[in-house]
Specification:
4-stranded antiparallel beta sheet, 3-stranded antiparallel beta sheet, single chain, 7 strands, 7 helices, about 260 residues, about 35% helix, alpha+beta
């Protein structure tokens, strides 16, 4: 990034009676290389909010940056604020869990399947539960849930700098691959029904959005159409979401 993300450390004595009250640390996702990516990634967080409360809240912001050293001109850009992980846990009556090497099968089935299917939907392969790479774990005493974040390398965003992991042998981030484990039919049915339930709201995030280019909106709707076509086809579900003998699931092409 030519303009990397920032971590805001807000003094608790100065945040009273402001929108930042009790929000000590906040990640500020900046425009990086292109301001359009801000709106696109922000909408991915809003999409996941529709599916589950085990998700990071995000808020758009218009930020003015002033260089205290006087070496750069003052500039105003869009960005978005990301909820602190401590508040994410408190909001969901859980504790943050930082232990690595926890396999996916030990995570609550519906939660983990939702994450894996969502990452497939947006064309994101840049995540890992055992290595806690772009994944947070929440300990809810009797079970563990997973929360994804950092989606700028997903196909739905189309960032020019994004590249799929070399080990996956994908030609583009727009090429989807399911990186989860296989779940029972009942778990998949519950997860897919949830995706179908929020489909109108997901599409509404993009349709007629003045902050997005019309061409991007059209490509994104087509990309989402492809996903919903997959989960509505029993044969495609078996091909894509069933992992047999450690082999890769079928890879779907993106538009």
């Amino acid at each position: 990034c030519t303009f990397p993300p920032l971590l805001l450390n807000i003094p608790s004595k100065k945040d009273k009676n402001t929108i930042f009250e009790r929000q000590n640390l906040l990640k500020l996702v900046t425009h990086c290389q292109n301001e359009e990516y801000i709106f696109q990634e922000y909408l991915v967080y809003k999409m996941y909010n529709l599916l589950t409360d085990d998700s990071f809240d995000a808020r758009l912001a218009r930020v003015t940056y002033k260089d205290s050293a006087g070496k750069r001109e003052t500039e105003t850009r869009f960005a978005f604020l990301l909820e602190d992980e401590t508040f994410l846990a408190k909001r969901n009556k859980a504790k943050n869990m930082y232990r690595k090497q926890i396999p996916m099968y030990l995570i609550d089935s519906v939660s983990m399947a939702t994450v894996a299917v969502f990452e497939y939907m947006i064309g994101n392969s840049d995540w890992s539960v055992p290595y806690l790479h772009n994944i947070k774990l929440l300990d809810k005493t009797t079970y563990i849930t997973a929360v994804p974040y950092d989606f700028d390398h997903s196909g739905i965003i189309e960032a020019k700098y994004a590249r799929p992991p070399q080990a996956l042998d994908l030609y583009s981030v727009r090429q989807r691959i399911y990186r989860g484990i296989t779940y029972s039919t009942s778990v998949y049915q519950q997860v897919f029904d949830n995706f179908r339930r929020v489909k109108p709201q997901i599409y509404a995030l993009y349709e007629n959005n003045p902050q997005l280019e019309k061409g991007y909106i059209k490509r994104t709707i087509n990309y989402l159409d492809e996903f919903y076509k997959t989960i509505d086809n029993p044969k495609s579900i078996k091909e894509v979401f069933t992992v047999q003998n450690g082999t890769k699931p079928t890879i779907k092409n993106g538009n």
